[in-house]
Amino acid sequence: MNAEPYSPAMARPRRIMVLGLAALTTGFACVEMHRLLGARGTTVPELFVLALFTLCFAWIALSFWGGVAGFIQLVSHSRVPGLRWPTEDEAAGPLTRRTAVVMPIHNEDPASVFAHVQATYESVAATGHLESFDFYVLSDSTRAEAWVAEELAWSELCRRVNGQGRIFYRRRSDNTGKKAGNLADFCERWGRRYDFLLVLDADSLMAGDSVVKMARLMELNPGAGILQVPPQNVGRSTLFARLQQFAGRIYGPIVAAGAAAWQLGDSNYWGHNAILRMAPFIEHCGLPVLPGQQPFGGHILSHDFVEAALMRRAGFTVWLVPELGGSYEQPPPDLLAYAQRDRRWCQGNLQHLGLVMAGGLHPMSRMHFTMGVMSYVASPLWLIFLVSGLFAALHEWFFSPATLVDFQSTLPGGAAFDTAGALRLMAASLAMLWIPRLLGLGLVLADRDEAAQMGGRFKLVLSVALEGVVSTLMAPVMMLFQSHFVFGTLLGYRVTWSSQQREDTDLPWSEAFRRHKWHMAMGVVLAALTVAVAPGMLAWLSPVILGLWLAPAISVFTARASLGLWAQRRGLFLIPEEVAPPTVLVRAQELSEEGLEPVDDALDHVLMDPRAHALHLALLEAHPMAGVPGALASARRKLLAGAVEPLSPQEKSAVLLDARTLSELRGRRLGVRA
Amino acid sequence: MDSVTTHPFLSFAPEMPQARADTREALEGFFLDFGFTGRGDLERLANWVLGTRELSLSPEAALALARWRVEGWLAEVLGPSHVGPSLLVKGRAAFVLVGGARWSADVLMREPRTLPEAWRRAVCESVPVAAPAEVPCQMREQVLVLNPFMELVRRWLRPAGRADVSPSR
To answer: What superkingdom heads the lineage (chain B) (predicted)?
Structure first.
């Protein structure tokens, strides 16, 4: 299927529609809000409230019209213009270019990582195009135990699939630039061997035919710099994760199709499950280091948006291709893990504020930066909006000669308050949030097979309703979490860029109370203030108050795999990937369950296990890494002098980097004099 | 090393007076790294290395001899493409990963060409190849003028001042 090459003119009418309608809707809402606030003249605090409302409403209006665009795109069953898709003959032919499939990892569970690599590898092999792909696990692991376990897992994987020479493993001892630095290091060493780079995350999984299609699309579209296939959340059992998976399956397609439909070749890159054109990536996407100190300066944390912007600046297009499918990742297992991930992303996205105005970027790249910032700043804005609304009301009371009764009459529920108008505005806001969800639900309901795979139409609707209730209750907590992260970042708190929690483990009540105590306290304060000042607002604020009070219980119960599986048995929150899982998911699950030989103490393992010893020394010999002389010297003092003092992590790593010391120690352990 | 030296092998170890204890220990340690753990295997391998040589051989000299012997064996099993300074380390890893010690000391003491072809292939395929040869290039850091408008003002006010750009790594 030949398509007209992408040009900005193609996108213009679509963007005018989406952005114009979002602006128009925001304008109407703003006028209505101004009318409500200005019933007795507009004060300065009320103007501030109005400005905040406009910003917040614009954000949800843009999401709403994006969702509508996605719905139209999905209903029309057409592909977005500008991207050339293969003909049947082309699709059947061999790939002519080479692709490196890379998975950067950092202290992850090796069993899961290598299970995913193996499942993806086997899936690609099943397409018959394996010759065009090499696989790399790029480790930035700092824990010695993770490092040694990865080496063994890699060796075992190569043995299982006969993958020596096609599956590679490289560990950096210097983690400069975190994940982006890890990828840059790869590109500088081996990038020139390949035409394309397919980036996976530690929990990514891709079906082989999708991988092949991505490579083929890159071959057919020489102007395409990045193709992003939105990953779908799968593979977890906790109630929280299953809710995320379900929500992603119902609303995700609408959101992704919408973004693809109006952004076209100026879309964004999400950091993984995407294919990049290697030469321009090397040439034009070397990340700058931002001036100043962290959190805004220094190395760029969320590299993906910036790389997409640089790729676009270099004249290559960036596409979102949701119709390819076969792209998976795992959601965080519980609310706290989700918040932890959000904290990292929040700082990364806020760092982009400094790039919004940078010279030479495409306007859509600036918009992506702004949208990334808004996805976190929206929470504190809503919070400030709520607090400012209360303050504006109190301001009016203090500065106008009114009694408490008069004052209360101007608040929701009061006689002087335009309750009908406020309800209209609230209904419009809720509609903006809910209509895209209902459109997504409608699309699934219209497809009998898909609805059947999601528990049947009745349970599907019930699941959407329950998911709506739970997400509404979680929203205030997430708002507070995100507000905390935003303010924390603005105040200069640094985020430790650690690996994400990916295991399904129950959350203890003590931990939940510890993390939510301030949320509960805020719920109590909010309820007390509302009862004292404006009892009429209690009903309006009850979802917020209830969500805050119940935060620990919500965290604990939704973190339980037992509840998630119970819901699954009852046909709730089902996704087709649970009912009829694709081969690649089944295989990854099987392999993960097989597990790996545990490595409790890396040094002990390397010294006592001949397999680990021989392999580790061979890898050190192939790619010597610079150690830390001081740490090695002190480690040798401790070990060779027979001291009982344990090694520090740095000393352990230093020993593991030194072949001579390892051989010497192994000899001593085995009672052999060299 | 382009040519491969074929080493004489002993299919049996004649009864000999014992070598120095420390030499024997060093050789046993060497072969323990190949995954051999049985006392019989280790003794036979030590004898294989020492052969009929002088019994007062120092541990260092015995180890050098062992390396030479095993490298020769590995070179023949793995082929010339693997011959180089890291032959012993890579070959030992391949031998251990394929579980060569399960075949007893005989496997090292036999002429490589007499070993089953499938077994030799398995050893070759087990040589760890952590990464292919590098093709170095530089991923140049991109320069971004963070605020072009302010940059214009700055140039107007202080033409020689430092630009508001991302600094070098």
So the answer is: Bacteria
**pLDDT class of A413 with cuts at 50, 70, 90:** low
Nearest CA in chain A to B163: A291
A85-127 pLDDT, tens digit each: 999 999 999 999 999 999 999 999 999 999 999 999 999 999 9
With bands split at pLDDT 50, 70 and 90, how would you rate the model's confidence at B5? very low
Task: Show Cβ contacts of residue A293 under 8 Å, excluding neighbours closer than 6 positions.
Answer: A492
Closest approach of B159 to chain A, Cα-based (Å)? 19
Does the structure show a pLDDT above 70 at A410?
Answer: no
Contact of A97 with chain B, judged by CB distance below 8 Å, is answered with no
- Do residue A618 and residue B149 have CB atoms under 8 angstroms apart? no
Hey, what amino acid is at A612? A
Confirm whether A479 is domain-assigned: no
CA-CA-CA-CA torsion for A103, A109, A112, A117, nearest 10 degrees? 20
Domain boundary among A320, A343, A366: A343
Do A8 and A312 contact (CB within 8 A), yes or no? no
* Rounded to 5°, angle at Cα A54 from A31 and A491: 155
Domain around A632: 602-669
Task: Judge whether A162 is closer than 8 Å to chain B, CB to CB.
Answer: yes
Look at A622 and B33 and tell me if their CB atoms are within 8 Å: no
Selection from A302, A409, A418, A371 nearest residue A38 by Cα: A418
- Interchain contact, A164 vs B128, CB within 8 Å: yes
Given A283, A311, A343, which residue is the final one in a domain? A343
User: Can you name the residues that pair with A318 across neighbouring β-strands?
Assistant: A226, A266
Number of domains in chain A: 2
Q: What is the pLDDT of residues A154-168, one digit of tens each?
A: 999 999 999 989 999
- Are the beta carbons of B147 and A357 separated by less than 8 Å? yes
